[in-house]
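Regression test attached.
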Amino acid sequence: MERSADYKASGGKLVRIRLTEEAGHIRSVRITGDFFLIPEESIGKLEKMLEDTPLREQEIRLLVNRFYSATQAQGAGVTPEDFVKALLSTREV
Amino acid sequence: MNLAVEEAIPRMVGEGKAPSTVRFWHNSNTIVIGCFQSAKLEVNMQACKETGTEIVRRFTGGGAVYHDSGNLNYAISLPKGHRLVPDHNLQSVFQRLSEGAVEGLRRLGVKAEFQPVNDIQVDGKKVSGAAGSIRWNSVFHHGCILVNSDLSILGKVLNVPRAKLEDRHVASVQKRVTTVRDELGRDISTREVADAIVGGIESCYEVRVESGVLMKEEVGLAEELYQTKYSRLEWNLEP
């Protein structure tokens, strides 16, 4: 099932999620938007890490936090929690 | 080619082969999208075709901006650890390295203020957006100043998502931006604005800016980046 959401982050930036879900799990996901994240290439790593993750709050938050610790990624206009909320908001549409 | 030069300079500065650099440039009708953006979602492709507007992606994040000859771009490249931005925090980079442009605009009589995350605004309307990165052992910041830009085309070629406009209580992208010309109520050249920004940079950062041209190595690297990256559809339009 294709799911999508445009989520306005607390810093004012937009996080746009387009994902494919199967049996409650993320099969693939694309995260785009006008936020800042360095290193820039790390967004691909986050997308890859999210594959096969259950689309549930606890698992998503754990994974996003693990991504930030592993990559030392730094955002501007977007927080780790914004990515969590953006991903979860695809369930509401 | 302009965006290839934009990447070549901080790479050379980070390698210690070029000095700290301020660059001014402009493009004819072009939409420049942020590196995380989807061209398909952000850009009205049909309007771009009709208006002869090109679409290119930059290596920094942030939102799409419309460039024309009435638009002035400035870029600051510093070696990592430079005294102006010692803490490697991207938000601090935006704030600190926008100050020169803010001061330059104020010298012209524009009531410019930095507005986090990355904007320069006049009475709540955006006159410049910035983007930047910390990579290649350098700190990079660039901004795009609307001097005499054609705001009517801007409103047509960019798709601004409803979610972005809702909290600002305005109906369109065109109504939440302004130009230096409109703020001053007179015609002004991009050259005059660039000169004012150089003055702002010199006074804010206590530096001396000397005019110069690109080094041979910078041109060579830019040409390579253009061939391998910035001229390619897979970089500019995907995802």
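Expected vs. actual: identical. The first helix of chain A runs from residue 42 to 50.
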